[in-house]
């Protein structure tokens, strides 16, 4: 598989052209066949990439230093992961609720059973706001109706519905001044902006920041750089798209050797390496032949730099252990 990966990369990329004629080299960081790789999050304390395989029901922790990938099996589909401020803990969104997982013992503890009774939905992407609250959204399994929601969950497991009428809740980020939150409901093809109040952890004043051109794919997971520019994985778009949310402009695209690009996160010692997750699902036979590396984690060295992601702030970890 590694020889195949090398050959494909040599043929595919050596240079991906952007609007500015910039040359960008995309490489395989970890070659694998994840069914639905997602949820990229850089743990800047341990210098590891946290990511998930939703359909594979797996939490992954990848160390670029030794190129090792630790896998923790989950009892159901896992939508997202964010490290907890406490060492060796992470918060995960499973099908029946939100849990704390010990990344050493692999034990799960229930934090919130929100939406456990809504069988037509499952949890999808999520991230923490600047104060350490988890914002996590659900998605309608049939992907046909806006029956899902976006929740804010604090460290004690209290869940508050922040948005409804969602179909596929996806990327979510905050600006460096903590005043704006950007959010994606994938089928809308739009990135919306909200005023964020970091005192009350609430949002208001919804507006459209970016309208994605359908020919570029569907907006999926998202990260933000130090200049508050957005980087979005494009489902059905084989690329990461870089947008200016102030103007709605597409700055550039980074072509990735996978049809479905799902999420990205800035990592590395200087936060200038973009890690990219992909999926091996939802491809035609022709696309499978064209993108044999689909499902792998990719990386690209950039001149842009990211910001440190907010960890989940959970002062109360004495929750009930899952049976």
UniProtKB/TrEMBL annotation:
One MF annotation (Gene Ontology) recorded for this entry: gluconolactonase activity
Residue numbers binding substrate: 122, 124
Family: Belongs to the SMP-30/CGR1 family.
Cofactor binding summary note: Binds 1 divalent metal cation per subunit.
Key words of the record: Metal-binding, Zinc
GO BP, one annotated term: L-ascorbic acid biosynthetic process
Domain SMP-30/Gluconolactonase/LRE-like region: 36-279
Active site: 220
Keyword Transport: no
SUPFAM superfamilies on file: Calcium-dependent phosphotriesterase
Cofactors (names): Zn(2+)
Gene3D superfamilies xrefs: TolB, C-terminal domain (2.120.10.30)
Binding site for a divalent metal cation: 38, 170, 220
InterPro entries reported in the protein's UniProt record: 6-blade_b-propeller_TolB-like, SGL, SMP-30
Pfam families, per database record: SGL (PF08450)
Record's protein name: Sugar lactone lactonase YvrE
